[in-house]
Specification:
heterotrimer; A alpha+beta (about 300); B mainly alpha (about 210); C mainly alpha (about 650); B: about 210 residues; mainly alpha; about 80% helix; C: mainly alpha; Cytochrome C Oxidase, Chain A; two-stranded antiparallel sheet; 2 strands; about 0% strand; EC 1.10.3.- (chain A)
Chain lengths: ~300, ~210, ~650
């Protein structure tokens, strides 16, 4: 009785993995499915809808597989039909070219619509004026500059709740990817480019973000804290940084850029146009996406270091 | 089983391969060479695409209009075209079973190819003296790689052609050497076509 | 002087890690054992004549599969090391730089030096036999392909002990893989290892395309060809169109590193995004290249073990051809997060979803082949049945990943890692194992122990789900790929531990397979396959003795139907082909040129890696010399006389009866 036991084993494994999923499903830890902002929320909904759509086909097929294997297993005295020459049925084949076509068609419509709705550079509709944060991936730390506030921080991102944040993302390091799972999907950080990504936090809370694209030795230490606070608290924080923290000088930036990890830091000021300089020193002929108009006016003193 | 076959099927089977189930191996080899040429088209296609993307990225260095001397390029283009023509004459001689004609036309073809290579080396030399090397800018990296890859192909074809001339002198025209001549003439014409694209995309469109 | 040598050695050899010293010792000991064993048993000549210079597709296939198993071992050890490092938070078992090398070599080895040679091995052994041919179209080129693959693989693996391994991930994205961030030789090992073996792959693609189009038995029209051969055809088409892109792209990356060119650099006007586009224009078709033959294998097996014709033959063919073409139109779904804009993302999301349609059709056709069949559960069929649910779930997550805005969240996370392992292990590896078990008797002339095989199957399957299902959840918890460790507060450790246990189960499964093969060789006399048709097969490879004689078919078969051999058996006159008149058989001669030429490629590659001009010139001159030698050699084939065929056939039949 090898075969039925084999099948039972397989069922057990499936059951176990589903249980495992269900068990951990209750946990707060599955942060992608526990969004705190409008973008992540829409992405979560999209995941669930597409999963359900696919399940319309997949669940019956999985059941059908089990039934067919069980029913037509070879056994003495088996009475189930046996048609060794049966190899073609236009009707049946049309059905299973048709079903996937229909499902994929539905999914395609949803996806295309969502792709345009959730295009990362599309501003989030809001009565609040968006706050700009300029993000630079360095080896192996994140530099956040707040051009409107004139302050900067390392490995710590504070944002006011309910305000759309316009991230401008670049890299002074190998290509990285800027990801805050609970606020929304990621965007590559590339040298010579300034990519735009709009995110927003709907509630006060502490989240985290990471570099999602491999950049070398201490890549695993590129996590950063994300704190969404009330607007008042945010303003207070800005004031505090302005009075208490040191300035980031060009010299300081060059030191920061050296390969190393970093603690959380904050700066009361940064060299004017630092972000644009970082972008343009790599931009050969492609500096699209950059918000700053007269980027050409800035010249970074040193060449790209080897 | 043979009984169940209709005579028509048997006829078809024999039309498919004449020698008792063996396909004609020389024909199979030529066919394979066509497929190889297809892969080479893709390699050149990739290099062309790279060139087109990077063409404007001169990084403040010299651009196509500053560098290319069209006189020499047009001359070498005509030389390569002429070599394709002489290669065709070689094939005509082969079909007339004229070994001497075949060998001499192949030799002329190889000679023209050698002149083409020489002119290309001179051009590269000139560019390097002007300070335009593969490391100067993305545009020049793409330029040297595309044109250089074509040049390497021609050089390879040259060595191959000389080897083939020796074989022809030794063995005359046999089914095997015949196939080899056919294949190298395919290769040669192919390089000619690629050069026309290089000439148009890199040189003509570069200076205009 | 001594100081100089010491300094050179510490640069040249990888030092400072006990794991690597251990490996060094093992490698040296194994080499000594092999060399002295061959010398003691006076087997050098035999090895050279029977194997190293062979142009026999069956032997080349066996060598491919042997190499693939070795590489599976190496890649598997890499995987275990990684899982050990990730089993608990904040472990320091592997330092980050070592970990980075290991995930890179794991990926490269598993795709390029395990899956590819395993696939080529199965191509080699079965395609000519299924087509009723005596060899592939270009036997010499075939041998050259193998040896190029082999020297590429050896060159790549050498980086483990000499110079240092690459550490930029399996696709080596610049700028990280450029000299600016990666000045060592590891990345050059990567380029040359893949470049040399890639040339071999390209030649194999051409070889099998021509074999299938031109070498089929009389009467075998394309639409009567066995499904595995169809899958090989679709895979070869993808190889022919995609591998040249890889060759060109790696050459450009090499020029950046070696000659200071600016294709993908940050300075000088280079464009790293172009590399990412180019490498995926090869990389995506590549995954279909390896999975399509697995589809073909499953089709053969489902039909044989359900004792029923394959359902929807034409649908299957169309589905594979559509997949082969579509695989070239989806590459940008690997970087939806590059910010190419909604138009581009929507296009590539759609093309990606389209692939689900033909793939789904194939699943339905397999199911309805089993429907109203008589299914038995020998190991090849077990792997096939294990594949179906695994691939369905992997396909589901693949469709999820193709939804571009959702991919912004899945990208670069363990969700992605789990997805591609599920389709590559569940699809490709299960498929090749199924094929190996199915065709093993034909390759070696004896059957394997089914009981051990079933243990291996269950360990693989349970281990697989145990290892990769948790990784989907880890991805949704925000765990990104390629992190060397993680902190306690992320709450990832339970699932990571489960995943590591799964990896260990799969390692045990691999040991079962090795045991099964060793056991098979030990008891081969008892388990000899005397019929040549142990599974009651349907296609031509089962109509000849196991293992097949060097010329495969004493008389070329005439084919008039699909499943020709099955139909012949139904009409009872199974062995009548033998009675036809024998003729001398035209065969290719063995040649030492391929192995020598590949050795020269190895030398040239090594020279380029370390920039030793002496090696470069020697290597390249050797390659050209070998080409010329081969061109001038007209003594490349011979005829097997009729009486020798008669003797061989009689000897086989004596054993058989």
């Amino acid at each position: 009785m090898k075969r039925p036991r084999a099948l039972r084993w397989m069922g057990l494994v499936f059951l176990l993995s589903i249980m495992l999923l269900a068990m951990t499903g209750c946990s707060e830890n599955i942060i992608v499915l526990n969004p705190k902002g409008p973008i992540a929320e829409q992405q979560r909904d999209l995941m669930i809808i597409s999963t359900l759509l696919c399940c319309i086909v997949i669940v019956p097929v999985l059941i059908l597989t089990a039934v067919i294997i069980w029913r037509y297993r070879d056994k003495k005295g088996r009475k189930a039909a046996y048609t060794p020459e049966w190899e073609h049925s236009t009707k049946l084949e049309l059905i299973w070219w048709g079903i996937p076509v229909l499902i994929i068609l539905m999914l395609a419509i949803i996806t295309v619509k969502a792709t345009y709705d959730l295009e990362p550079s599309k501003p989030i509709a809001s009565s609040e004026k968006p706050l700009t944060v300029q993000v630079t991936s360095l080896n192996w730390k994140w530099l956040f500059q707040y051009p409107e506030q004139g302050i900067a921080s390392v490995n710590e991102l504070k944002i006011p709740e309910d305000v759309p944040i316009r991230f401008e993302i670049t890299a002074d390091s190998p290509m990285n990817s800027f990801w805050i799972p609970q606020l929304g999907g990621q965007m590559y950080a590339m040298s010579g480019m300034a990519m735009t990504l709009y995110l927003q936090a709907d509630e006060v809370g502490e989240y985290w973000g990471s570099g999602a694209n491999f950049t070398g030795t201490d890549f695993a230490k590129m996590y950063f804290d994300v704190e969404a606070t009330s607007k008042e608290e945010f303003d207070a924080w800005v004031e505090e940084v302005k009075t208490d923290s040191p300035k980031l000088t060009l010299e300081g930036y060059k030191q920061l850029r050296e390969p190393s990890t970093s603690e959380v830091q904050s700066y009361s000021a940064f060299p004017e146009g630092l972000f644009e300089m970082t972008v343009t020193k790599y931009a050969a002929s492609h500096n699209h996406g950059l918000s700053w108009k007269n980027t050409q006016n800035f010249e970074f003193e040193d060449q790209v270091t080897r | 089983m043979a009984e169940s076959q209709t005579s028509e099927q048997i006829l078809q089977a024999h039309a498919h391969d004449e020698h008792h189930g063996h396909p004609d191996m020389e024909e199979v080899r030529t066919f394979g060479f066509w497929i190889y040429l297809m892969t080479d088209v893709i390699i050149f296609g990739t290099l062309f695409a790279t060139y087109i993307v990077l063409q404007q990225n001169t990084d403040g260095g010299p651009g196509p209009a500053d560098l290319f001397q069209m006189g020499g390029i047009i001359t070498s283009t005509f030389i390569l075209l002429a070599s394709s023509y002489t290669c065709g004459l070689a094939l005509l001689s082969m079909h007339k079973h004229n070994v001497k004609g075949l060998i001499s036309w192949l030799a002329v073809t190889a000679g023209l190819g050698a002149i083409f290579i020489g002119m290309e080396i001179a051009e590269f030399n000139h560019l390097v003296h002007e300070g335009a090397t593969i490391g100067t800018s993305a545009f020049l990296s793409a330029f040297f790689t595309l044109v250089g890859t074509h040049g390497l192909h021609v050089l390879f074809g040259l060595v191959w052609m000389i080897a083939l001339i020796i074989q022809l002198a030794k063995r005359g025209i046999t089914p095997v050497t015949k196939r080899k001549v056919n294949v190298i003439s395919l290769f040669w014409h192919f390089l000619d076509v690629v050069w026309i694209f290089v000439f148009t995309v890199v040189y003509l469109m570069g200076v205009s | 002087m001594w100081e100089k040598i010491k300094e050179f050695a510490s640069e040249f050899f990888v030092t400072g890690d006990p794991l690597i010293y251990g490996a060094d010792v093992t490698i040296v000991l194994t080499l000594i054992a092999i060399v002295s064993g061959l010398t003691y048993f006076k087997k050098w000549k035999w090895l050279w004549r029977e194997w190293l210079t062979t142009v026999d597709h069956k032997k080349i296939g066996i060598m491919y599969i042997l190499a693939a198993f070795l590489m599976l071992f190496r890649g598997g050890v890499d995987a275990l090391l990684m899982r050990a490092q990730l089993a608990m938070p904040e472990l320091n078992f592997l330092p980050p730089d070592h970990y980075n090398q290991i995930f890179t070599t794991h990926g490269v080895i598993m795709i390029l030096f395990m899956a590819m040679p395993f696939m080529f091995g199965l191509f080699n052994i079965m395609v000519p036999l299924q087509l009723g041919a005596r060899d592939v179209a270009y036997p010499f080129l075939n041998s050259l392909s193998f040896w190029l693959f082999f020297s590429g693989a050896m060159l790549f693996n050498l980086s483990f002990v000499i110079g240092g391994s690459p550490d930029a991930g399996w696709l080596a994205y610049p700028p990280y893989s450029g000299t600016m961030y990666n000045p060592g030789v590891g990345q050059d090992f990567y380029i040359w290892g893949i470049q040399i073996s890639g040339l071999g792959s390209l030649m194999t693609g051409i070889n099998f395309l021509v074999t299938i189009l031109k070498m089929r038995a009389p009467g075998m029209k394309l639409m009567k060809m066995p499904m595995f051969s169809w899958s090989v055809l679709s895979s070869c088409i993808a190889i022919i169109f995609s591998f040249p892109i890889l060759t060109a792209t790696l050459a450009l990356l090499f020029l950046d590193r070696y000659a200071g060119a600016h294709f993908f650099t940050l300075d000088g006007g280079g464009n790293p995004m172009m590399y990412i586009n180019l490498i995926w224009m090869w990389g995506h078709p590549e995954v279909y290249i390896i999975v399509l033959p697995a589809f073909g294998i499953f089709s053969e097996i489902v039909s044989t073990f359900s004792k029923k014709k394959l359902f929807g033959y034409k649908s299957m063919v169309w589905a594979m051809m559509i997949i082969s073409v579509l695989s070239f139109l989806v590459w940008a779904h690997h970087f939806f997060t590059m910010g190419s804009g909604a138009d581009v993302n929507a296009f590539f999301a759609l093309t990606t979803m389209l692939i689900a349609i033909p793939t789904g059709v194939k699943v339905f056709n397999w199911l309805f082949t089993m429907f109203r069949g008589r299914i038995t559960f020998e190991t090849p069929m077990l792997w096939t049945i294990g594949f179906i649910p695994c691939f369905i779930v992997g396909g589901l997550t693949g469709v999820l990943l193709s939804v571009a805005p959702a991919d912004f969240q899945f990208h670069n996370s363990y969700f992605l890692v789990a997805h591609f392992h599920q389709v590559i292990i569940g699809g490709v590896v299960f498929g090749y194992f199924a094929g190996l078990y199915y065709w093993w008797p034909k390759m070696f002339g004896f059957t394997l122990n089914e009981r051990i095989g079933k243990w291996a199957f269950w360990f693989w399957n349970i281990g697989f789900y145990c290892c990769f299902m948790p990784q989907y959840v880890l991805g949704l918890m925000g765990m990104t790929r390629r992190v060397v460790t993680y902190s306690w507060d992320k709450g990832w450790w339970e699932l990571n531990l489960v995943s590591t246990i799964g990896a260990v189960l799969m390692a045990i499964a691999f040991l079962f397979q090795v045991w099964q093969i060793v056991d098979g060789f030990k008891h081969q006399a008892k388990n000899r396959d005397t019929t040549g048709d142990p599974w009651n097969g349907r296609t031509l490879e089962w109509s000849i003795p196991s293992p097949a004689p060097v010329y495969n078919f004493a008389v070329l078969p005439n084919v008039s139907r699909q499943d020709e051999w099955w139909e012949q058996k139904q009409s009872a006159g199974a062995h009548q082909t033998i009675k036809q008149k024998l003729e001398p058989i035209h065969m290719p001669k063995n040649s030492g040129v391929p192995i020598v030429m590949s050795a020269f490629w190895f030398i040239a590659g090594f020279g380029f890696i370390f920039d030793w001009t002496g090696f470069i010139y020697t290597g390249l001159a050797g390659v050209v010399g070998c080409l010329l030698y081969h061109s001038f050699n007209y003594d490349t084939d011979y005829y097997i006389p009729v009486d020798e065929i008669e003797r061989t056939e009689a000897a086989i039949r004596k054993v058989n009866i």
